[in-house]
Amino acid sequence: MKKLLILILFFNYVSLIIAQNDFVKVADLANFKTELSKKTSSIKSIHADFTQMKHMQILAEPLKSSGIIRYKAENKVKWSYTSPYKYEIILNGKDIIINDDGNVNAFSVGSSEMFSEMNDLIVNSVQGDVLDEKRFKISCFENKSYYKVELVPIDKKKIGAFFTKVVVYFEKADYSVSSVEMYEQGGDHTDIKFENKNFNQSISDAIFTAN
Question: What fold is seen in the domain 25-208?
Fold first, then answer.
């Protein structure tokens, strides 16, 4: 009897986890778009921790890295990797600046289509404009805690040359970006999770320039 009770409790627990992870089509898409735009329009800056997991077919285990991301309206983003090594990527609307532990290189956003496309996508997600993207076929899903937006590139010669699909998860509590999944043409994919998010703190423009 005790074993039977344990089995029942176990399967109930598994069923609960599956139910929480199940996504269905968004019931009211118009309301989702309105609320996403309304909530994100007040966000002028974000300071958050991130964890990145790079899944590669040639490796048994994913490559893990972590750090801090800073965003400032309208289009400034800084990725500061702190583990397992120090590395910074800055996108300020005009330039892409890479600081590899003191070795700084800068080039124009237009010279790297992949960086430019991904920066636009990240900024549009933060600003709530991702549902108006014309470069993707967009599908929206929801469960109890999250909205999931799947973006499949329409033009296979631009961002579609790099990614087969990008998935953005939004917290239902505050409509902020919870995580991003990027699926590459070669079968690899990258998952980035954002935590400890702080909104509308003062962030100096100086950090988005080459030091």
Answer: outer membrane lipoprotein receptor (LolB), chain A (2.50.20)
